[in-house]
Design goal:
Layout (H helix, E strand, L loop, with lengths): L1 E6 L4 H12 L2 E6 L7 H11 L4 E3 L6 H11 L4 E4 L6 H6 L1 H22 L3 E7 L23 H19 L4 E7 L1 E3 L18 H9 L6 E4 L11 E2 L1 E3 H16 L6 E6 L5 E2 H12 L5 E4 L16
Parallel strand pairs: 1-2, 1-4, 2-3, 4-5, 5-6, 6-11, 7-10, 8-13
Antiparallel strand pairs: 9-12
The chain binds uridine-5'-diphosphate-4-deoxy-4-fluoro-alpha-D-galactose.
The site of uridine-5'-diphosphate-4-deoxy-4-fluoro-alpha-D-galactose (UFG) has 20 residues, from helix 7 and strand 8.
């Protein structure tokens, strides 16, 4: 079986991707130090796969540990690089953490891939690179905006790093996936979204409030220029997003694949925060206490994907 290195493989998107890789006949090799995920995510992956995945509990900025991991694993067909910090507010207060972990880890991974002869990489990018787009739905050719946070800047910088490295090394191929807002969980419920601490993102906050773990949800602003005043995002099921990584790897194996390509991964449909809340309560019947609060710094009014490409 072709081995695929999955950094951040115990995280929300990473864990779902490991499962889809295994279902498509690849062998996921997880690198994750569990700093923002839990052991039980790995147990859940194993239960769905029907066998224990290969796991290395190491920091993917640790060159020595990464080199030893590659020496143990042998040939690696491709890498999927999820490992990164993603709390926008924290990145404003501690930018060096984001530059070190998000940019440093990709520099090291690309160096080690070259040493090891691994020629395919799928990178977790984000619609954050668009800022507030002028035209919606947003296409991949929309210009990058000035980053709205150090986190956003790390995504723009890593995309550029991959454009530069693929043009300097004809053997290397990269696919940059610009995620919109991933939500949901594997239908088995063995894995899902389980951030440590207080969630930053809407849907885990919704589910934890409905489960009684949090007192109430705050809607960050209803004075935006949208039909109901709350922000609009493109919410994509995490299993669909996970499958996009498998397709990206397969696409790079094909003849016509360019050396570096970018794809939006969304549904093409925008929904407001209030619509998400109403959809959740409508489906589950669970009470979801919420209050309307002020805007959150750095939020864009509306973003959803053009999925034509
Ligand atoms: N929201 C609330 N209340 C909450 C949490 C969120 O009203 O408690 C609103 C936000 O204001 C926003 C929408 O729900 O309008 C979605 O917010 P998320 O935090 O779930 O996601 P973002 O659209 O802000 O996503 C951004 C970047 C992603 C990045 C992510 C990481 O666009 O690239 O933050 O936190 F991965």
């Amino acid at each position: 079986m072709k081995k695929v290195l999955v950094t951040g493989g115990a995280g929300f998107i990473g864990s779902h991707t490991c499962v889809e890789l295994a279902a498509a006949g690849f062998e996921p090799v997880i690198v994750d130090d569990l700093r923002n995920s839990q052991e039980r995510a790995i147990d859940g992956i194993g239960r769905i796969m029907g066998r224990k995945p290969s796991v290395h509990r190491i920091d993917c900025c640790d060159a020595g540990a990464m080199r030893r991991m590659l020496a143990t694993e042998g040939p690696i067909h491709g890498a999927i690089h999820f490992a990164a910090d993603k709390a926008v507010g924290e990145s404003v207060n501690d930018p060096l953490k984001y530059y070190h972990n998000n940019i440093g880890s990709l520099v090291l991974l690309l160096r080690l891939m070259k040493e090891h002869g691994t020629q395919r990489i799928v990178f977790s990018s984000s619609c954050t690179v668009y800022g507030q787009p002028e035209k919606l739905p947003v296409t991949e050719s929309a210009p990058d905006r000035n980053a709205m946070s150090p986190y956003g800047f790390t995504k723009i910088a890593c995309e550029q790093m991959l454009r530069d490295t693929t043009s300097s090394d004809p053997a290397l191929k990269a696919v940059l996936l610009r995620y919109f807002n991933p939500v949901g969980a594997h239908p088995s419920a063995h894995i899902g979204e389980l951030p440590l601490g207080v969630p930053n993102n809407l849907v885990p906050f919704v589910t934890q409030t409905a489960a009684g773990l949090r007192k109430q949800l705050t809607v960050f602003g209803t004075d935006y220029d949208t039909p109901d005043g709350s922000c609009i995002r493109d919410y994509i099921h995490v299993v669909d997003l996970a499958k996009a990584h498998v397709r990206a790897l397969e696409w790079m194996e094909g003849e016509g694949a360019s050396s570096c390509e970018v794809f939006n991964i969304g549904t093409g449909k925008g929904n407001s925060v209030l619509e998400v809340i109403n959809a959740f309560t409508g489906e589950t019947g669970a009470p979801l206490p919420y209050v309307i609060g002020p805007r959150r710094a750095g939020d864009t009014t509306a973003v959803y994907a053009d999925t034509t490409k």
